[in-house]
């Protein structure tokens, strides 16, 4: 942390915002502007024919008391345009951040998604199952990935770092998910590698993937890993991507047997080692002759 003074300063600002929210009217105005921008982009997506709108991870950072108003706005938007909307929120729970014992920081953030149906109803609320250790003081989910059956196929949300956990992602194949909605937030040092890592989860579990990213590479792929659209968050231009994705699940060996290939490779390697040990023969060495020269009397 000492190597990144800008990050330290940002963290100090965030902690002050959490503990003393009333002191930051300009911050509140910036939050409102960000929300307006999200709905403006969502409106443009709908005008271009989108039937599902996906925000990137934590697109809207807001206080807990402001959440009902934003949800009502999202529900009205979905109902008015008859579209699915996946809102990705970073909800801050203000107040003292230190736990009662005074030795740790309490989780003061809800990193979550809220999926709203075309009728304006909330289908599910998903909390990130695997907050990034040491850097993300947020409430973790229950380990489950919720699903929603639609006219297009089965949808499921998850968030960013969750896709690094293969065991959690196996639910995609087990639940026959057709499209994984994976809002994410990266930074330049891990982009685009983190996005390509997530593609493996789609291929393993036979589903399409929509990984909408802030601060990185957004990727939209089918169940074979074929990239159908991409957007570089560091490139100039629009932050809106329109893509048509298949929403169907294909059964895979990984879904049925898990990490069978890795275990098979380990077993094969062990077999080669045992065979080499059994075939090992001792090396016969010729005796070394020693010539003694006796003195002549």
TrEMBL record:
Single annotated GO MF: N-acyltransferase activity
GO cellular component: plasma membrane
Listed transmembrane segments: 260-277
Principal cellular location given in the protein's record: membrane
UniProt xrefs under SUPFAM superfamilies: Carbon-nitrogen hydrolase
UniProt-listed InterPro entries: Apolipo_AcylTrfase, C-N_Hydrolase, C-N_Hydrolase_sf
Entry keyword set: Acyltransferase, Cell membrane, Membrane, Transferase, Transmembrane, Transmembrane helix
A biological process from GO: lipoprotein biosynthetic process
Compartments it resides in: Cell membrane
Entry annotated with the keyword Hydrolase: no
Membrane topology: Multi-pass membrane protein
Start and end residues of each CN hydrolase domain: 14-247
PANTHER family assigned to the protein according to its UniProt record, in alphabetical order: APOLIPOPROTEIN N-ACYLTRANSFERASE
Family in the record: Belongs to the CN hydrolase family. Apolipoprotein N-acyltransferase subfamily.
Name listed for the protein in its UniProt record: CN hydrolase domain-containing protein
